[in-house]
Amino acid sequence: MFGEDGGLLRELLVERFNYCIYVVLLLIGLYAMIAKNNLIKKLIGMSIFQTAIILFYVSLGVKEGASIPIYKPEHDPHGHHAEDHADHKPKDANASSSASADAHDDHHEVQALTDEQTRQYANPLPHVLMLTAIVVGVATLGVALAVVQRIYRAYGTIEEDEVMKAIMEESQGIPSTKGSPKSKKGASKKRKAKKA
Amino acid sequence: MEVIQDTRPLIALLAPFVGVVGIVWAGEKRANLRETITLLTGIFQASVVLSMIPLVLADNVIEFHVWQIFTNVPLLLRVDGFGITFAAVASVLWIATSLYSIGYMRGLHEHAQTRFYTFFAISMSATMGVAFSANLLTIYFFYEMLSVSTFPLVTHMQNKEARTGGRTYLSYLLFTSLCLLLPALSWCYVWLDGGAVTMDFLADTGKISFFSSHTQLVLLLLFTFGFAKAGLMPVHSWLPNAMVAPTPVSALLHAVAVVKVGVFCVIRVYSDVFGIDLLRGLDGERIMIWIACATILISSLIALSQDNLKRRLAFSTIGQLGYVVLGATLATKQGMGGAVLHIAMHACGKITLFFCAGAIFVASGKKYVSQLRGLGRKMPFTMGAFLIGSLSVIGLPPLGGFISKWYLALGALDGGYFWVVVVLLVSSMLNVFYLLPVAVTAFFRDRDEEEDEDGKGMKEAPWQCVIPLTCTALGCFGLFFFSDVLLQLAGLGH
Amino acid sequence: MSENSIALIFACPLFGAVLCTFLGGAKRALCHPVAVVSLGGALWGGIETLRRVVASESHEISYLLGGWTLDSYPRGVGIEFRADLLGTLIMLVVIGVAFLVALYSKLTVSEETPEKEGPFYTLFLLQVTGLAGICLTGDAFNLYVLIEVAALTGYGLIAMGSARAAAATFNYVILGTIGASFYLLGVGYLYMKTGTLNMVGIQEVIVQQDLADSATMQVAFVFIGLGILIKMAFFPFHAWLPNAYSHAPTSTSCLLAPLVTKVMIYVMIRMTLTVFGVDFSFEETLWTKLLPWLVVVAIVCAATMALAQRDLKKMLTYLIVAEVGYMVGGVWIYNYYGLVGSIFHVISDACMTLCLFLGAGIILRKVGTSHFDGLKGLFRRMPLTMTGFFVGGFSIIGLPPTCGFFSKWYLITGGMLAERWEYVVALLFSTMVMVVLFFRLIERIHLAVKESGEEFGHGHGDLDLPENETRFDEAPLSMLIPLLLSAAVVLLIGIYNQDVVNLVESFLEPLNLPKGTDR
Amino acid sequence: MRKLAVAVVVLTGGLLLYAATDFAAWGDPESPASDSDVSKHFIAETGVDTEVPNMVTAVLADYRGFDTMFETVVIFIAGIAILAILKLTGKDATKTPGKRKDEVDDAPDLIVTHTVRLLVPIIQLFAFYVLAHGHVSPGGGFQGGVIMGASFILVALAWDLPRAMDRLSVDRAILLAGVGILIYAGIGLLAMFLGGEFLDYAELSTIFPVSREMARYHAMLGVEIGVAFTVTTVMFAIYASLSSKGRLEGGL
Predict the structure, then answer these.
(1) Which terminus of chain B is more exposed, N or C, with fewer CB under 10 A?
(2) Which of A120, A135, A160 is the last residue of a domain?
(3) Lateral strand order in the sheet of B60-68
(4) Residue pLDDT, tens place only, D139-182
């Protein structure tokens, strides 16, 4: 944990800068989700929280000296290299030693990358996972917003304590009949009128 | 001993269910048909049970394997002497009760009679199940079934009183069975060879010696009080509370089936799980004798102070159940036999008393002992039967109750507990004090004048009530004179 | 076709859902049959899968989605569906329960959420897809996606109801997202340390590289565990459940209440046994020491809160929280029998909760309220419905021969063998509470005494109930039959418990859990 | 609540930092995540397996295509759920809502509408490019779909919701979202009926005149199109429902 040429501070703040940021973001989000009274603020917290995790995953995919996980032209199965290499490579050359994909006359044989070449590309998996996580986050946010709107429509407020109060009043005011939406809406309208 | 595979135990078990289908089908509108079905079911069940007696007397056991509960534990039905004694008593008395309840329920214009007969039949099935169980888990299954299926009967009145009674009834029975019995069972089943020992009453008697004597005592206590239907103090108070039920229920279930299921289970545990030898060697076994004796004496004293006839009988029942448990705790052959006999003897006597109490209620609406003055002349059959039942419970020859008490006393002496005999004598005296005054009041005290006014039209109860109670009263004599069979079944014969 | 039966399990409801969307506009009436048929197809696929799993030698089937088969590609390149005995059993329960609820839902959906049959059945089917997928997937990240599928459909299904339900859903969204995100974070840690997302792959790396001491792994375990505990509404994190389920539309609560928490418990078992492995989960973490005590607190608190409720549905939801405590406890007492009990309880609890919620739905529809006051004398009106309801109640109490007895038996046994007396006592305590709860209900349903204790009639003979309270008035068949079927299932699982337990045992056998019987 | 939140945050933060002490070194190529068989396979063999240069697309749509299918389903669910929650039906729908105070009846701004009129085709073209070019450069179904959805939202912003709904009504949007799922799952199912596992695109080569690798290549484009359908339409449906409070008229 304590590196030879630096203390904990250096370790955390410089070398693991991203990890620090993600922790801070995550905690901000978590705090907002629990402590905030306004429902929309809670949702903002939720978004920050999810973004923090995305940041963590992306940091995970970092690889020193690697580029984005898209084949450079020389490794591209459809790239120009096919023709380039075909010119100066004998057809019966040892395929396994070939640095790039070998090419034939009309259709080319794609070769797996060697270890050396693999090092040049970052790991694609975290990116894929985060694409999924982003989508899930968007979907959750959308549904949550709809729910908030439904709450606002019924109770006329998006402050949690006021919603709770309205619910308490409602459950005391209306006897234990089946909670039909109509009666509830009536009650909320009255409340809205009072506010105005 | 020979093991015979036969379906008859299962038939006896399932017959009431077939009856239930018929009863529900006939329903409230075809009341006569419904009652006929009940009676026929009872007769059929009793005849199936009785038909097995010769086989058992010839030193056989009848087995039927129903279903595998756990890997090693089957739901096994087995008919042995002890089981069939109980089953025969219960099923024969069911016929009498069926007849009696026709008179009782119609006489009082009770509501929901179909439900009453339905659950009555289910209770009888559960009782047969307990009687024919071959291992502890099987017994537990039917025991719980009985607790639940009697609940609608206890709360039949559907009023506030019924609610209180039903609550006490069920909470006692389920709390004890789920909190004491279930852990004890699972303790036994798992720690004995990881479930390889099935607690079979025949094969695994005494296997419990695997545990330390300390644990054995804890288990003994858990089992004894877990079977709260045995009414041992301090888990007895469900029984007086269950008296809110209609009298046929009190008569058959709370004098015969349910309470006897409790003591039956206790005897099973003492004699077939622990075994007499192991039990004698157990240090704490003496505690159980004290508890049983205390139950006998205290309940008799309480019974003295009860004016409500059914409550008085209920406390008397608790005392008599104490006899049975006492017989089991003595851990002698005679004591066990006496306990088995007392199940039958007390059943016959006590059901007579309850029938009479119900008949009095139907005919005159009287519930209290102090109201019975002069009733003996109006209802000679009923009160005569009451006298016979009382004498049998007290234990006078030539009535059945004498034989069981005799063997209990023998067992006590055999075990070296002289003071237990004294307890038996004292309690018999107490029985005299709380039972005989009822008959004496009825026959020898004159009615007050103002009471005569409203009692003018009073006459004997309906015949459907009188016939059964006369029969059971005669049965008390019969059991004394034809006790050979019972003795043999109880393992005391020659 | 038979080897693709696994694909049917998620493909049938998925296509059914899309079809329901298409039909949602003009031909709404067709949505219900479509849902039933597609779940029927899934059920067939599930049964076929179970048959194949049982028949196969290793008792598990690998299904490599996308054709990334294990013999030509490294494990974890594609997504793997692993149907072993545990997952297949739970999956079958999920689909079976969903099938019954689909049958049941015809009337309640059109009455409670009019003109929204299309969206309802779409979400309903996708919920089932998600839950069934969770049971089968062998990929830790795919599990997250499926959890979110189930969660999002759940939000939608619950918030479709009243405004009160929407307010409850918001809490569910917040807590559910925290739970799922914690899980995701934990999976991220796992991936960082092991470089794979495949469950078996992770386990292999943990064993090979001996990662037990790693701080990251420990924290990953905590986050995944916490996330799942939040999702399953374990006691201190239960806040979202009672309101959400008790105010949701009837069919929704019938589907979610039996399944969601149970499937999450399955996920916990899967994570501890398959992903982290027995040694890591039980020996290297503090959870075995800590969690049984939390479970005791959870069971006692939830049971006490259930006792305080005067509303049937609300009471049932607290019971679910208590039952979650049972199952979590069964896992963490770290004992063979405890785990058998836990898994069996997942199955039986799903069935009995279903039975109770179906019954409660009928009561709600008939009486118009699920408050206790509305229950009096119901047995006379609806004897069959009430019988079905009682069977569920008996099972929750743990009376033989219902399945609840057997699961409780194994749990108590496991607790005793592990010498976790506190857990056994908590179980017995909550059993007592359930006795009180249900016989209080049964008393009300059976007796004709008002809440105040006032009597209706004069005892013998006439009860003086108004005409409409004594008339024989059974629930409609479309609701009654599923209820009775579920009651029958509760009894059948009890009676054939040995077959189920044998399957569970052959899953647990290779794991070498302590049996504790060799004293 | 605040105290509880602080406590939770402190505890979580402690855990997170504790875990961070044990993390693999920053950007270490030898770290398990970057050096595992799986990620090496993705980098080295994507070309061999699928002939797609963009590994992210290949992993997304093929190796982990099942995840992505459910990701699309998640989007679809969001659309349906929002409609289910917000859409007013029956009596409520016919009730005319009272005008909000802040609502203005002004005609759309001339400059804005003209700009949008010019921009929308370009945005949509770009969306197609991002979608189609996802195999060789960053892009794909989700990204293309979002851009496409944005173009419809832009119309709704510049004029009003009805005008956008003339082009894509919410009901039709949800239908098209379902079509997107059908395309994705349908390709998977087709592969299954052709004898492979679900989503085994290589099996499509039996009915199309391409090699197994190229079948995967083209099928990926197919599923990306399906994804784009769903994302485009659901994005718009979410916007329409939220901005009009489920009445699907007027909007912001």
Answers:
(1) C
(2) A120
(3) B2-5, B60-68, B74-79
(4) 888 999 999 999 999 998 888 888 888 888 888 888 899 999 99
